[in-house]
Amino acid sequence: MIKAGIIGATGYAGAELVRILTAHREVKIVWYGSRSYIDQKYADIYRNLFEIVEDVCLDDSLEELASRVDVIFTATPQGYLASILNDAVLAKAKIVDLSADYRLQDVHVYEKWYGISHRSPQYLAEAVYGLCEVNREAVAKARLVANPGCYTTCSILTAYPLVKEGLIDPDTLIIDAKSGVSGAGRGAKTSNLFCEVNESIKAYGVTTHRHTPEIEEQLGYAAGRSIVVNFTPHLVPMNRGILVTEYAACQRKGDGSLPTYAEIKAVYDSYYEKEPFVRVLKKDVCPETRWVEGSNYVDINFRIDERTGRIILMGALDNLVKGAAGQAVQNMNLMFGLPETEGLMMVPVFP
Amino acid sequence: MIKAGIIGATGYAGAELVRILTAHREVKIVWYGSRSYIDQKYADIYRNLFEIVEDVCLDDSLEELASRVDVIFTATPQGYLASILNDAVLAKAKIVDLSADYRLQDVHVYEKWYGISHRSPQYLAEAVYGLCEVNREAVAKARLVANPGCYTTCSILTAYPLVKEGLIDPDTLIIDAKSGVSGAGRGAKTSNLFCEVNESIKAYGVTTHRHTPEIEEQLGYAAGRSIVVNFTPHLVPMNRGILVTEYAACQRKGDGSLPTYAEIKAVYDSYYEKEPFVRVLKKDVCPETRWVEGSNYVDINFRIDERTGRIILMGALDNLVKGAAGQAVQNMNLMFGLPETEGLMMVPVFP
Amino acid sequence: MIKAGIIGATGYAGAELVRILTAHREVKIVWYGSRSYIDQKYADIYRNLFEIVEDVCLDDSLEELASRVDVIFTATPQGYLASILNDAVLAKAKIVDLSADYRLQDVHVYEKWYGISHRSPQYLAEAVYGLCEVNREAVAKARLVANPGCYTTCSILTAYPLVKEGLIDPDTLIIDAKSGVSGAGRGAKTSNLFCEVNESIKAYGVTTHRHTPEIEEQLGYAAGRSIVVNFTPHLVPMNRGILVTEYAACQRKGDGSLPTYAEIKAVYDSYYEKEPFVRVLKKDVCPETRWVEGSNYVDINFRIDERTGRIILMGALDNLVKGAAGQAVQNMNLMFGLPETEGLMMVPVFP
Amino acid sequence: MIKAGIIGATGYAGAELVRILTAHREVKIVWYGSRSYIDQKYADIYRNLFEIVEDVCLDDSLEELASRVDVIFTATPQGYLASILNDAVLAKAKIVDLSADYRLQDVHVYEKWYGISHRSPQYLAEAVYGLCEVNREAVAKARLVANPGCYTTCSILTAYPLVKEGLIDPDTLIIDAKSGVSGAGRGAKTSNLFCEVNESIKAYGVTTHRHTPEIEEQLGYAAGRSIVVNFTPHLVPMNRGILVTEYAACQRKGDGSLPTYAEIKAVYDSYYEKEPFVRVLKKDVCPETRWVEGSNYVDINFRIDERTGRIILMGALDNLVKGAAGQAVQNMNLMFGLPETEGLMMVPVFP
What is the pLDDT of residue D60? Predict the structure, then answer.
């Protein structure tokens, strides 16, 4: 039985970790870290866990935690883990970090987009970007995994095969993303009140959202060169779910023709057919967030526009599962040699 | 492995049965009955099951089905099962009926409230009302279980201990119920369109809702005499969930005083402390549907009003799980000698 | 042109006052009071008013305000107005108070339910309870109007004619109320975040909600004696709207029979037929909040239950309009001798 | 007083016409056409109009209607008006057509995208595309106005000044649009049921949506040449509102530099500063549909991305008002020489 600790257990991602790990046969949560709710019963805060979890919340003490558990999940604000991580901790426990601290290899990019200085860049080289479908083998050997962002997981997996195979021009890539409100966290902000969000949609962080460089770095690896993209997130009045709609110019063939549906589909299949959590949909079926809610699936599809020469890619996932806690557990499974799907085969909940 | 067939597999209750049974270790669904979608892939209709269920929908043939499966779930319109059930079928397969056909023991009451004639009243005596917490032993021996209605499950379980123990006057019982929209089914009606339901609340079926006599019959058994109640359902703009708020006069003690919180709580505990799916909340915590969503739990609590001498009871459940498919599986578990909680310990999904 | 000032202009009720008064032909708002947003442009906070309102928010200074305006609307926390009101202010400007400070004539009841001491009980005798349909003439002469609460307006108007005419037993009255989230205000509380409220329903303030004594006092006047009722509010995932479902035993006639539909309807009509903002619906049509959204209407109807001898009353209004700002303007119209409907004949917005 | 008739009065756009015209001082509706609800009271279908509109629905008879009214609004399915329009009708009454029948000048484009043959192409030359901000003078003289689509109004107005002034490369234009559900109409389809739409987002009509050629034609006029664009609509779980996010490459200056914020803003202002219904927001403020709900405003803004050389344009409107009924009334005002804003200065309703 793997002993797990969670720092930041009372945010939405932390709570989703609790939901998933509670049902995981090989894991026992022994530390519910929450600075805001110390000594309160966890199930008094997340009452869905009433009579399921009896523990109380504990303070955040990475050192002590490391000596008690096998794996630490940090669902904490940016900069937190970077400010306290050290060799002693890493020697004792594996870490899956749900913050952005070790996602970007270039510390200058991190500091520019996040506006804080990185306090432990020495671990960047060791940290593995935990997008299992891309970095499966490296994750399996890692002590420190940087769990990808919710938007980025969806954005990257949707475009990855086509960028990697050179089927689209990455310089033309535009990502228009839409997210449910749980992605904004559980902080008590006026802008996330029910009446402010309900019955409305807006873009935010236009040209400045912090997931942009993460997408650029990872898709840049696929492209074999650095790229810049437009990424525009939107807030949608629903609890969960991310949908990305991506636009790119197709690379035309020598005769000037566009790739066919079958050709693109074959490329997607070659990457994802055996992936347990990536579902490439049938022709002309558009991904919808309702079909992945509560599950670890990413649904992907595409459509070629003969008129404009562009391809429209679409991807959908549950931001709290494949976009956060589910992927974190998927990484943990790999890191501990468990079946990758252990505890993650939840059927999506609809309606 | 128990072989299961579902008639009415493409309604919301049917789809929830599929979700639950797909994850149930002892059951395999071998028949997805849906008159509306014959020969279509089930996962083309409920795309959450894409790459999970590969079967196509079949016509409704109770006879043939009975010879192929161990258990049949009927999630069908009122009157359907009553019109085709026969001895041969019952001899071959056990049935959990999610319709109202065998819920009311008095056929005249059924015919009056449902406005149709009952075609097989001869099975009423055999049918067991499948409220597991009340009829556990009878269910275990039954061939034909009448799965309770969603409103009724919530209404009855919330009041049952107090009626049974004579702590409230059942003639004063008023049940004000609120339901999410999935309870209205998947039929294409204007009144259930998004824009008609969203941003509104209404009562409906006032004094005439068909769950009224079901509540009256079952609570009448508890009271030891026939009772009439007011039951008023409301439609709430959310997918899932039922909340009932019940009002009744407390039976005063000999000295005219009201029962205390501790006394009422002790009664609830004596009935429900060991029930795996009934959670009596802490003092002053009100049930909320969000804390049971996606799960088989019923959350219950109460508050005594010294000023009016009434007690206010509250109960919350997920209408598709404990109010339909989950309870159906709970019944099935009992009927086949499985652990009652098998396949049903899903942690509620929040947010 | 009436000059108006608003204290608390940046709460939801305050903002609705701005929306309504901006379109009112006889009023000009000259003071947007908001302690939280001093010196900020009002339209930067409520961007629906961009290019419509150019003013900036001012501090709350009742004295100065009184010398500048004809009418002051206070949409402020309980206790605020009571703590600063004085004769000089009342000599200069009329006041419509949207808080509870002058709603309850009995200061002990106020202090008990609100948990604060009343700082200016000397004005209670003068204050008029601004339920126009009941106190029209007194409002017209008032300097200080206590604008009723949202739940109370709906609860009282729905039951008033039947209580007044002795057609129901007020001791049996139970009010089950449901409200949209704007009733909870714009404060940044975790419990009102989108993800906490969406897809859920709950009761709150059970047996303790502060609108209870207000309902009891006003319906007590109608009954001619003091009464106690059960009032249970619920939070519904929608922006606006209140629905009340009220239950009471009918007073039977001398021969033991219940009143007929026609008899009850005639009573409602005698009270409301000429009321511009009260609509008694057709037989068997249940009020729905969607049909009054954005308007000053209250929709009312009832249904007699022959089985239980009770009558079920239903009422719906928009909590920010007839439940707050619209009623405040209706009161202002009366106080200034304007047509009562001036600026208030907005057609409800649907969908 | 202008006498108006509506054909298709019981769809959502028709009902919004009724809401707006009921409050319009110069118009009286004398014909509520609705084939589905003949002889039923209009206010029985749209109960927001109870005690406001007393008329019953009439059959669709264009000829008879034309002889009774001054203006006819047709909120009808595609092809309907084209199949029955004739000279006699046009000689008697002005027409504002909310369908697509006369929006596209090229009948082949119409027939290709709509899949039906156009039955009266002879009126295409006469029909004026009723985007008031662009075609104000032509509208004023027109007998037949083609009221623009909801998506198109938002898409075109957002990009128009920049295309017209050559500040963006129209061949790079990508429009990612998001709409509330009322845009899908009131037809009883499973796909528009509350539970199917709520808590989800999806793209639809990818590369094939019928508003695409309308955008291309109108922006082509602005560009001075034909263009093709990508237009992708999405369905958002809210009643009203359209948001468009548009991406295009900026035309660089001779020195290779991008236009500045001030330069682009100046262009927008030169087009829209005096427009009563177009609001160009302050720097860095993103349009949100909640700020225009219930009103005839379009909110627009933009952000230049120095990294990619693209500009991101955003526009928001209420699809039933500026996207349908409001714009139709704006056209009618122009056609009858009324002030363009008459009956349309509704303050947006929030929350």
Answer: 83
Q: CA of A198: which chain B residue's CA is closest?
A: B199
The model carries a pTM of 0.98
What does the pLDDT look like over D63-112, one tens digit per residue?
999 999 999 999 999 999 999 999 999 999 999 999 999 999 999 999 99
Beta partners for residue C129, in sequence order: C146
Distance CA A327, CA B112 (A): 54
What is the distance between the alpha carbons of residues D143 and B325, in angstroms, rounded to a whole number?
Answer: 59
At B60 the pLDDT is 83
CA atoms of B144 and B123, how far apart (whole Å): 8
Q: Distance from first CA to last CA of chain D, Å, rounded?
A: 34
Q: Determine the pLDDT at residue A105.
A: 96
Cβ(C287)–Cβ(B201) below 8 Å:
no
pLDDT, residue B65, reads 95
At A61 the pLDDT is: 87
User: Which residue is it, tokens 């050559």?
Assistant: D166
- Which of B195, B201, B241 lies closest to C241 in CB terms? B201
Which residues of chain A carry a pLDDT beneath 70? none
d(CA D120, CA D99): 14
Give how far D190 is from chain B: nearest CA, Å. Answer: 5
Interval D172-182: pLDDT, tens: 999 999 999 99
How many C-alpha atoms does C55 have within 13 Å on its Cβ side? 18
Asked if residue C327 lies in contact with residue C157, where contact means CB atoms within 8 angstroms, the answer is: no
Please report the pLDDT score of residue B157 as a whole number: 98
Q: Is the pLDDT of residue C332 over 90?
A: yes
Joined tokens for residue C17:
């006052």
> What count of other Cβ atoms lies within 10 Å of the Cβ of residue B26?
15
What confidence tens digit (pLDDT) does each residue in C166-194 have? 999 999 999 999 999 999 999 999 999 99
CA atoms within 13 Å, Cβ hemisphere of A237 = 35
Q: Which helix (H) or strand (E) holds C141?
A: helix C132-141
D325-344 residue pLDDT tens: 999 999 999 999 999 999 99
Alpha carbon of residue B131 to chain centroid: 8
Q: Angle of helix A107-114 relative to helix A211-223, nearest 10 degrees?
A: 150
D152 DSSP 8-state letter? H
Residue B16 CB partners (closer than 8 Å, separation 6+)? B320, B321, B324, B325, B326
**Is residue A344 classed as helix, strand or coil in its secondary structure?**
coil
Say whether residue D181 is in contact with chain B using an 8 A CB cutoff. Answer: yes
Cis geometry, peptide bond prior to residue A351 (ω within 30 degrees of 0): yes
Segment C158-171, tens digit of pLDDT: 999 999 999 999 99
CB-CB contact of C74 with C80 (8 Å): yes
Three-class SS of residue B96?
Answer: strand
**Chains in contact with A, counting 3 or more C-beta pairs less than 8 Å apart as contact:** B, C, D
Q: Is the ipTM of this complex over 0.85?
A: yes
Note whether D199 and D274 are within 8 A (CB).
Answer: no
Give the best residue of D190, D202, D219 to mutate against chain A (max A CB count within 10 A). Answer: D202
Rounded (10°) angle between helices C132-141 and C150-164? 110
Instruction: Give yes or no: B150 in active site.
Output: yes
Q: Is the Cβ pair A195, C188 closer than 8 Å?
A: no
Q: Flag whether pLDDT at C61 surpasses 90.
A: no
CB contact under 8 Å between C188 and A186, yes or no, is no
* Element housing C73 (H / E): strand C71-74
Residue type (1 letter), A82 = A
Crossing angle between the packed helical segments D211-223 and D107-114, to the nearest 10 degrees: 150
* D205 C-beta neighbours (distance < 10 Å), count: 16
pLDDT recorded at residue D3: 98
Beta bridge partners of D278: D298
Average pLDDT over residues C14-25: 98
B242 DSSP β-pair partners: B179, B317
As a whole number of angstroms, the distance between CA B226 and CA C128 comes to 49
